Amino acid sequence: MAANDNNDGAPRTIQDFSMPQFSSRQSCIVFSELDATSSYEIKDYVINMLPEFSGDENQDASEHVDNFLDICGTQNIKGVSDEFIRLKLFPFSLTGDARTWFKTLPARSITSWTQLSTARYWRATKNIRLFAIG
């Protein structure tokens, strides 16, 4: 058997291999560097104000982004760009299938708000319905 990730020589069990490795998952978002003098804190109430989007049929992704941008527009943090704030907060607005979709985006593949806001989210059920209809 292979040595474990800690390189201490102890053999790994089958259970060790079946456990998810959370620390190895990288975010799809690449954040710009902040000015060394910048310090920021995103308050809990801001996260609680964010609209939630799960990707359900009755939800409109464009409306979600508009509402999301309205909340982000209330944040003015010295030395922190609007884009940085949007990229930091957006994952907190996703739930359910939309959050699952977000987590499947390739690591370090999103470098700007424009890129993230134009990423396409299609639920598998919508695709299946499109094929069944036409």
From TrEMBL:
InterPro entries, per the entry: Retrotrans_gag_dom
Annotated Retrotransposon gag domain residues: 88-119
A Pfam short name: Retrotrans_gag
Name by which UniProt lists this protein: Retrotransposon gag domain-containing protein
